[in-house]
Amino acid sequence: MPGRVVPTMRAMQITQLTGPASAMSLVDLPEPDLAVGHSLSPGEGVLIDVTVAGVSFPEVLQTRGEYQVRPDLPFVPGSEVAGVVRKSSPASPLKPGQRVAAFCLLGAFAEVAIAPPHLTYALSDELDDAQGAALILNYHTAHFSLVYRGGLREGETVLIHGAAGGVGTASIQVAKGLGARTIAVVSSDEKEAVARAAGADEVVRSDGAWKDEVLALGGVDMVLDPVGGDRFTDSLRSLRENGRVVVVGFTGGSIPEVKVNRLLLKNTSVIGAGWGASALFKADLIASTQAAIDKLIASGFVRPLVGAHFPLERAADALECIDSRSATGKVVLDVA
Ligand SMILES: NC(=O)c1ccc[n+]([C@@H]2O[C@H](COP(=O)([O-])OP(=O)(O)OC[C@H]3O[C@@H](n4cnc5c(N)ncnc54)[C@H](OP(=O)(O)O)[C@@H]3O)[C@@H](O)[C@H]2O)c1
Question: How far apart are the CA of 277 and the centre of ligand 1, in A?
Fold first, then answer.
């Protein structure tokens, strides 16, 4: 249309699959438009002026083309934001000017993003914008894994690997809010302090005799494992009768294999928890999970721990912080 000026925004784009340090470029792009729809149907969604974007392990993998979601190049990565509603489709009860937390799947590393209505929530006054950008992926994953998949019950004990990370700190807080006892596994003094700040009852070190320490503490009913690798067999050995290992991710790099005869010794279950794979588009499940998380925010158990902040243009440093295992809590990009 002659004379129509398309507004632009700053964004970080993955332009090549060369790893966190060099894959991304700062670019000016046309703002997303609800009428065009992007990954949603035209007219559907919530258009958000982004204040803070959350950074997660999958974006590290995406810079190498190693994540299951592989959009065509170039693309704007980032799955979650906090910000202010500019416009929303009739399917959303949210109004322009409202503070929100949203899971937008892609496109978060930008000044403007679109998110599906069922994954966009009014942000509680109890949380700041950075905590809002740390909410949906980690806390929904934690609740889905512990409760929906693992069947965690009040009074049970849960061992949480990678406990100072995003999923780990969220899982400690959700488990505590549900009346469980938590034992955190971490690799350093700094991470021990973070796990304790998240509310862990006990902390053991991944480089020590952690399995023996856990058994000395009475063993556990559940292991929540976002790390994988060679600690898996000791996770099985840490369980009590009828214990469950809930598999969430593989930050340790290798995918463990289970000798299934071990599962007979104490009636053990190994359970997969793919929030992104199975829950994301089930609007009822997402809504009931968010309602449970809102209760835990109101009762003071859920307070996302935000670690490093970087400006948008330093997204590469944010990804390297995660890739080098030095991140604690949630890493965020300050966008506005
Ligand atoms: N299943 C799902 O639906 C779902 C949803 C969200 C995330 N995830 C997955 O869950 C995993 C954790 O995500 P996150 O956001 O919590 O990550 P994160 O904040 O980076 O934390 C991961 C933790 O893993 C531990 N780790 C062990 N070996 C590592 C290594 N070689 N490199 C990096 N970290 C290592 C680190 O703790 P220590 O140093 O203390 O060992 C680190 O704190 C990722 O694989 C992610 O893709 C899965």
Answer: 17
